[in-house]
Amino acid sequence: MQALVLLLWTGALLGQGSCQNVASSHEGAPAPDSTGEPVEEEEDPFFKIPVNKLAAAVSNFGYDLYRLRSSKSPTANVLLSPLSVATALSALSLGAEQRTESTIHQTLYYDLISNPDIHSTYKELLATVTAPQKNFKSASRIVFERKLRIKSSFVAPLEKSYGTRPRILTGNPRMDLQEINNWVQAQMKGKIARSTREMPSDISILLLGVAYFKGQWMTKFDSQKTSLQDFHLDEERTVSVPMMSDPKAILRYGLDSDLSCKIAQLPLIGSMSIIFFLPLKATQNLTLIEESLTSEFIHDIDRELKTIHAVLTIPKLKLSYEGEVTKSLQEMKLQTLFETPDFSKITGKPVKLTQVEHRAGFEWNEDGAGTNPSPALQPARITFPLDYHLNQPFIFVLRDTDTGALLFIGKILDPRGI
């Protein structure tokens, strides 16, 4: 009975207008009260910290990008590390004049931030989320057409805030691809495969965002309990995949009745966590869940989930992505960057964005810090453990707890990565 009360209580708590937060905030108009006067909403203290506010902004860009990618791939897995793409765009904005800079900043939600120095705050954000204990690697790079003369007034702040230098193409596609591959290998310490894609011949500006993460659970799984189990692709089709099990897991949990999904959060070492959104039915459309994802909603979830005992199964996962996000960005009101931008702070020659490449690798297995749950996790008193089996399509969000930054997001329709 206690378990049922917990489910209903958290369900009611999490199921209140999940997706309104950013939609209303980006319009910038506080809702009126009964007298018709605008009422200023009290800002959460968490978002008053500049680096956290910036993390929320670029994460909301990330959720926007994810929604576009997912809508274009309704029957396939989606894996993204939007922060690496946001970083490349933010760095590029250093070279943009006011009109073009404003276009980039609005897409990154910077227009909601009263921060006199976005770029130095971004440097702090990158230093925090890529700290060695987090096992998260991210890098971005701006590549320019051959023989371009770049202003030193652009290179210096780029290197200062984003830790990267621009690259000028040689014009030899084979050598240019090799150089970019070598850079990726160096940044990711060999964790991402070399690209087999050919270099386009008509590059003006190429943005490259790469990221890699291998999770380390706070409480590791017993590899002897890992076994082949059914993953339900839908009501009729199943596949056998290696599933990790913990019959006495401690996790944070809630049921969102509006979204018809069970939400669970598992902690990782380095102040990181993964939040899972598991629909109640294998055939349930994930769109409603996806539309609800914002920095503010995820922050609210993080505050409201309750710690419980659970019988947990979760598929081992190793996914990678290599491809373009160019068209998605064009649909995010960035079309002018590809047509008539003003990057005169970079060079005296007219240049425009041609292509945005993204490479990402993500994996988790049984590895973790220890066999015993953290003493800080005090489960709610319930008479029996709940079942939480990630054995059907789900969405996950990898979040940095320190800043709230979205680091990875995935839609897993088939854990085999097909």
TrEMBL record:
UniProt superkingdom: Eukaryota
Span list, region Disordered: 22-43
Chief localisation class: secreted
Record flagged with keyword Secreted: yes
Pfam families membership: Serpin (PF00079)
An annotated GO BP: positive regulation of neurogenesis
Signal peptide range in chain numbering: 1-19
Domain Serpin: 63-415
GO cellular component terms given for this protein: extracellular space
Family to which the UniProt record says this protein belongs: Belongs to the serpin family.
Protein name in the entry: Serpin peptidase inhibitor clade f member 1
Gene source species: Castor fiber (Eurasian beaver)
